[in-house]
Design a protein that fits this description.
The chain is mainly β and 258 residues long. The protein has one domain. Pfam families: MbnP.
Length: 258
């Protein structure tokens, strides 16, 4: 991934620990931080045990199922109260379908202290999206070159009951918005986005519980009509921009536990 300006974490740790007694310093220097991702539909917990059953109602009134849900988050960043930026330059493929990578262990990279904001990127920024990731290649998370290459930001697939009261497929796939598919695609706007979780305090082993409300992908600010926008959405830049807009309110910090 691209070279980042990474705040001198070791120096920051020493400054913080110098203000503590020896016993406390020893304990805090070993504190680990974990991001834990959970999923819900308007407050009702969703796990892979709830997949493959048509049971969720979106804002437009369609009833749908989820059969696959996986997405990438990258560039986890902690900002100190003095505006120093700790950019971890990492990524994680969260696969709800298989129940893998729901927890991202940051280890002891984050010094104890108060932080004005924790953030991450949904998907990849354009520089990171141009890199080669063997694990994502193996997971078939790639985007075809005619659509700009790189990787998906999210794949959510399932079925819904259409206007004819029949089961139909939907493929809600988020990628970099693209026009003119082919040998020379163009990109009307960026569709990755930053998720700001707000302030946190790290005083020991800490778990940041991050919640995705899946229903938000279908409702705010764009009420999603699955009868109109169901499949072949990757080459549809207008649909990708709508996903980008709806994604702004999907994630939130549920709780911080130690």
């Amino acid at each position: 991934m691209k070279t980042k300006i990474f705040t001198q974490i070791i120096l920051l740790s020493l400054i913080i620990l110098s203000c503590s007694d020896d016993d406390t310093s020893s304990n805090l220097s070993q504190a680990t931080t974990t991001l834990s991702f959970s999923h819900n539909w308007n407050g009702t917990t969703v796990t892979n045990a709830d997949f493959n059953t048509i049971q969720f109602t979106n804002q437009n009134g369609e009833i749908l199922s989820i059969e696959r849900l996986r997405y990438v988050i990258s560039d986890v960043t902690f900002t100190t109260t003095s505006n120093e930026v700790l950019d971890l330059d990492n990524y994680n493929l969260i696969d709800v379908t298989n129940g893998t990578n729901l927890n991202l262990d940051l280890g002891t990279q984050i010094p104890p202290g108060n932080y004005s904001n924790v953030s991450f990127t949904f998907g990849f920024d354009n520089d990171d999206n141009s890199q080669n990731y063997l694990d994502l290649n193996s997971a078939s998370f790639n985007v075809p070159e005619m659509l700009g290459g790189g990787y998906h930001y999210m794949q959510m697939d399932g079925k819904y009951i259409d206007n004819n009261n029949q089961e139909a497929n939907y493929n809600y796939h988020a990628i970099r918005a693209v026009d003119n598919p082919g040998p020379n695609p163009t990109f009307p706007q960026d569709t990755f986005f930053t998720v700001n979780l707000g302030p946190v305090s790290i005083s020991g082993d800490t778990i940041l519980n991050i919640e995705m409300n899946i229903a938000e992908w279908f409702r705010n600010p764009n009420t999603w009509d699955l009868n109109q926008l169901n499949t072949v959405l990757m080459p549809n830049s207008s649909a990708q921009i709508m996903m980008f807009e709806n994604g702004q309110n999907v994630f939130s910090l549920g709780s911080v536990s130690e």
